[in-house]
Amino acid sequence: MKNWLLFGLCGLIWGSSFLLIKIGVSELSAFSLVSGRLTFASIAFAIVLVALRKPFPRDRKTLFYLALVGIMNTAIPFVLITSGEQTIDSGLASVLNATVPLFSIGIAHWALHDDKIHGGKLLGLITGFVGIVLLASRSVDPNHPNPLSGQLAVLVAAIFYAMSAVIIRKQLRHLDPVVTAGGSMFVGATSVVLITLLFERPLPDIAALSLQVKLAVIFLGIVNTFVANSIYFGLISSWGASRTTMVTYLVPPTGLLLGAIFNAEPLDWRLLVGAILIVGGVALANFWRPKAKALDLLEIPPAGEGAL
């Protein structure tokens, strides 16, 4: 029962990330919001790594790929998703972010010798793609002002998450997952904060921000990034990767529901059917497979919504 409660809590936390981002961008730029979020998350991870005395890698190859993952799996997708939510609904962003496993399938087919596309994966890809097209078609409807530019930003973020999953699986599997998450988080935070300090003018006046926005940034960093990942890693240890990664399916419906309730975001048949097709495509790709092959790219935990 405890694990099921933690499972549901993790899905709720990650699903709420998109609503919190929407609240944050009402007063902050994408870079400022991500800088604050990653700073809080990095401090929390640093405390845990020091407290647990986790050994940090020293060889150049591992450090290079850890830094690369920090840029590709944290800095870039966090900024892209946050930028996208400046113009599109939070619920729609949560659905588009659920395409990460579908992109992972295609990238893994070319990059990994032991994770090729089979019939179930191909059908899942096609189903998910139809869902994406259906969602994109809403942008031509004046009643649903969700421009393609914002949707593309979230989809590109999903591609970066997918590429990072392959890199983690291929180059960083020997590391403790907490070290991978914490190290990459620190790199991502450093890069985004530096860019924000160098190029953003004027810098946000923290004192002038509303309490709602301040709480959104703090929650995104501490709860939605640090706590959710900690719960996720704990479930992997007790349940195993395959079962735990099913939390991915809770994120879109949670994001849609919270966006509709707290932000009055419209729900229409194209959004709901598109969400079902994308989540269904992911399910087809991961549960319908040849019996001889049990490998699953979703052993790699999503970062932030990826499962940000």
In short:
This protein has 308 residues and is mostly helical. The protein is 72% helix and 0% strand. The radius of gyration is 18 Å and the shape is globular.
What does this structure look like?
This protein has about 300 residues and is an all-alpha fold. The chain has helices spanning about 1-25, 30-50, 60-85, 90-95, 100-110, 120-135, 150-170, 175-200, 210-240, 240-245, 250-265, 270-285. Mean pLDDT is about 85; it is low at about 290-305. It has one domain (about 1-300). The radius of gyration is 18 Å and the shape is globular. Helix content is about 70%, strand content about 0%. It starts with a helix and ends in a 21-residue tail after the last helix. It contains 12 helices and no strands.
Mean pLDDT: 87
**Shape verdict:** globular
Strand and helix order? HHHHHHHHHHHH
Strand content: under 5%
Domain unit count: 1
Helical coverage, percent range: over 70%
Beta strand count: 0
The major beta sheet can be summarized as: none
Structural class comes to mainly alpha
Number of helices: 12
Distance between the termini: 26 Å
Low-confidence stretches: 292-307
Radius of gyration: 18 Å
